[in-house]
Amino acid sequence: MPVKNKIRVLIVDDSHFFRGVLTSGLKQDERLEVVGTAVDAPDAENKIRELNPDVLTLDVEMPGMSGIDFLKKLMSSRPLPVVMVSSLDARVFDILAAGAVDFVQKPKGGQEALNAFLTELSAKIQIAAVARLRFGRRTTAEPAAALPGRSPAAPVVPAAPVGKSRGKTVLAFGASTGGTDALAEVLRRFPADTPGIIVTQHMPAGFTKMFAERLNRICAMEVKEAENHEPITPGRVLIAPGGFQMGLEPAALGYAVKVTAGEKVSGHCPSVDYLFTSVAQIAKKDAVGVIMTGMGGDGANGLLLMRQAGAYTLGQDKDSCVVYGMPMVAFRKGAVCKETGLDMIADEVLRYLRNRR
Question: What is the pLDDT along the chain (357 residues), one digit of tens a residue?
Fold first, then answer.
């Protein structure tokens, strides 16, 4: 049966060939309607006014105004859900910080790679159509010096530190769509003596190292991409590498991470469910689990296991999520001890850690 209320998509790309590829490919999804194409920023502005699309796909490299500059202008004048489509590098985080809901890399290879690309793009367009836009909020693209009263190198941290942290305590975070910006907002608020943190953020291989390096520049804690058997220590954040599963394992002085190539779990690699399940099995009550913005239900079952094992669990609330999917599913399963806004997650974790000592 025909799909009612199709998502209206405007394609913005300076390549005539690639506009054709996107148009013909997205038309194969009956949930989408390609209402038009544009070749550059001025053309896109005119087409947006004329066609009123629901979602924009936007290339980074365009003649005249770049895709990133156009995105910033768009978010300040006529906010619209945007999925960036390009041969991306470290600028992806500037793109997400500027307000894009998500990104997809242009395919490299033959028909199989193209089909996978179109499937991913279609899914992310559908996510973007229901996402809460984040324009108007300080993001990772802005240095900490932009905050009043802080030096250029000063991260944002709570006034009350944790004190001496136990090596057996582990904090586990999981996020997807909107998570890169949200995690930055939370992690930069932890003081340097916070117990070890492990993070699974849905992200392709090659980008998690850049993400960790970016976070390391704005956080009081050290942030790095995880390596197999790396110990979890106070003051350090380990990010699951894209394309690998990361879980918890016992170590001589507490815990370490086990990073392995593996199949997708709950549709993802790395998977939040994979991480949380291992934390429930190994750390039990000596853990805190936080599930954050993202589409779908990855992490909900694992977080429930954590709560049942005695861990304290938090969910990001609906009003502060870009997509209230993963936290919603976890909340409905009874996996969440408490829901809280993005700006209060770090404070709530630190309050719990201080009270349990």
Answer: 455 689 999 999 999 999 999 999 999 999 999 999 999 999 999 999 999 999 999 998 888 998 889 999 999 999 999 999 987 677 888 888 889 999 998 888 788 999 999 999 999 999 999 998 865 443 333 333 333 333 344 455 554 455 444 458 999 999 999 999 999 999 999 999 999 999 999 998 889 999 999 999 999 999 999 999 999 999 999 999 999 999 999 998 899 999 999 899 999 999 999 999 999 999 999 999 999 999 999 999 999 999 999 999 999 999 999 999 999 999 999 999 999 999 999 999 999 999 986
7-130 and 159-356, same CATH topology: yes
CATH number for 7-130: choose from 3.40.30.10, 3.40.50.2300, 3.30.200.100, 3.90.79.10. Answer: 3.40.50.2300
Residues serving a catalytic function are 176, 202, 298
Indicate the pTM of the whole model.
0.87
* Residues in a beta bridge with 316: 340
Residue ranges of the domains in the chain?
Answer: 7-130, 159-356
Edge to edge, what strands does the sheet with 312-316 contain?
A: 222-225, 236-239, 197-201, 170-175, 287-291, 312-316, 338-340
Name 222's bridge partners.
Answer: 236
Tokens of 163: 């004190």
Q: Could you give the CA distance from residue 328 to residue 316 in angstroms, rounded to a whole number?
A: 9
Give, in words, the CATH class of 159-356: alpha beta
